[in-house]
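Slide 14.
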Amino acid sequence: MHKKVSIIGLGLIGGSIALDLKKSGFASHIIGVDASPIHRQQALQLGIADEILPLSEAMLQADLVVAAIPVNALMECLPHVLDIIPPHAVVTDVGSTKSALINTVKNHPNRRQYVPSHPMAGTENSGPAAALPHLFSGKVAVICNPDDSSAEALVTVRSMYAHLEARIVLMDADSHDEHVGYVSHLSHVISYALAVAVLEKEKNDAAIFNLASAGFASTVRLAKSSVDMWLPIFLQNKDHILPIINTYLDTLIRFKTYLENDETDRLSDFIKEANKIRTKLEQK
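Slide 15: predicted structure.
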């Protein structure tokens, strides 16, 4: 095993991958690539990367390349990475949207060296200091359109996720983008909207945050997520996100109508139906 791994983007996800690949023995050497001088310095200080190199040099030395940068940057970076990697190297990314990215490189001569993936894990924090060991342990990692990748590339990426202790799910890219729209992207939309609503109220009622407790904090936790990461996700996946938002709004209006009309039984049934989510999540 013991591969040289080049990681583009040394923040929460890239940094967490680096920590566990090194600790598990999958990687013998981690090469870091990051546009931020501060992130480069922190990654070395925190032991996330063994060395920092420019992109082209890091690609030429890699057995595996993991691209962990925002999805808009991936659109520009991935074709260039596939242009310069050596013939034996494998490339994966960890972006939250897949269809647009895959289409960008669908005709690239080195397409089969690329395995699109998305580990379903993260926090609201960013940067190298946010990296966590065992972030992916027990979580799902999606590999998209596996038939378009070589068998050797799939073995490498499957092995990477096995060393991260993640559970692999295979899925076509469009289904992935729709599903994450429901279980990830909508959650962020709601959290951002709630945070903005409360902040608007706070402008005229400064005492409102005196009442904020753990329930509010957990609901708006995602609103602390980086705009640099999430704005491109929303824009790339808007064809799925917009209908999902409409579905959510229709459901919210049902709740509002039941409450307006004092339809106690319907409101009770609505809440009981929502309670079923506990069983679904406990089955994971």
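Speaker note: The chain has two domains: 3-171, 176-282.
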